[in-house]
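Q: Convert this sequence to structure tokens.
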Amino acid sequence: MSASKKTLRICEKGHKYYKSSDCPSCPACEHERKPDCGLLSQLSSPARRALEHNGITTVQHLSKFSEKEILQFHGIGPASLPKLRASLKESGLSFKN
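A:
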């Protein structure tokens, strides 16, 4: 298996970073965008972007989906589920069955 070569990139804000994938997100910009509290503040950037891309920004909206449906979103993996379950439980909610 060959190692991917990282290339230097510069985002619109002038942040310099290296990436080996085609993902256009700048790590510095993603860190700046991360909310301080709430559901999305607890997740990794790919998981947060996946939920945002699908219009899910609150636990109330998250509760309308099953775990299986959430796992289908690109960027959400099994490691995100415990955090999502805990957020739902704090609000007295759960995933759709």
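The helical segments are 27-33, 45-53, 59-62, 67-71, 81-90.
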